[in-house]
């Protein structure tokens, strides 16, 4: 293949790939998606209910989500704890369901999360995920990368 043919092929591939992309979601659209749909197969979440639940102490540990992850999910008390604010709601749903089912565990931290998640209903998981997905977070993706 000649150099010109290779160049034309590369340009054609680049154009084809750029046509497959989509625009970045508008500000706040990420939160709306988290609120209205779930790939985990659980009900739609309620942001206000999730915010209230994040401050409610769990019976298993006597702790609330905010006790370890911070008031908005962005200030964990330990650097090894994840920031939840701005995280994708589906990710939070799947994680909490894995903790609840026992598919995640085996360390002090994950066992604490498992004990907390075992108390949660599907609706409560959806509500927490909707809330943390709606919070402006410090997590970043490539939608607005320069």
Automatic annotation (TrEMBL):
- What residue range is the signal peptide? 1-19
Q: Which PROSITE patterns match?
A: CYTC, PROKAR_LIPOPROTEIN
**MF annotations from Gene Ontology:** electron transfer activity; heme binding; metal ion binding
Q: Domain Cytochrome c spans what residues?
A: 45-136
Looking up InterPro entries in the UniProt record yields: Cyt_c-like_dom (IPR009056), Cyt_c-like_dom_sf (IPR036909), Cytochrome_c_Oxidase_Subunit (IPR050597)
Q: What are the alphabetically sorted keywords of the record?
A: Electron transport, Heme, Iron, Metal-binding, Signal, Transport
Record PANTHER family: CBB3-TYPE CYTOCHROME C OXIDASE SUBUNIT FIXP, CYTOCHROME C4
Q: What is this protein called?
A: C-type cytochrome
Organism phylogeny: Bacteria, Pseudomonadati, Pseudomonadota, Gammaproteobacteria, Lysobacterales
């Amino acid at each position: 293949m000649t150099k010109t043919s290779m160049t034309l092929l590369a340009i054609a591939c680049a154009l084809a790939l750029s046509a497959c992309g989509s625009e970045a979601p508008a500000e706040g659209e990420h939160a709306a998606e988290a609120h209205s749909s779930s790939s985990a197969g659980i009900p739609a979440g309620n942001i206000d209910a999730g915010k209230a639940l994040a401050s409610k102490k769990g019976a298993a540990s006597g702790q609330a989500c905010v006790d370890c992850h911070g008031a908005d999910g962005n200030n964990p008390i330990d650097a090894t704890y994840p920031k939840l604010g701005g995280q994708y709601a589906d990710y939070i749903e799947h994680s909490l369901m894995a903790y609840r089912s026992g598919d995640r565990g085996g360390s002090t931290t994950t066992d604490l999360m498992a004990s907390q998640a075992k108390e949660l209903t599907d609706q409560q998981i959806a509500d927490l995920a909707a809330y943390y997905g709606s919070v402006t977070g410090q997590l970043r993706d490539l939608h607005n990368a320069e």
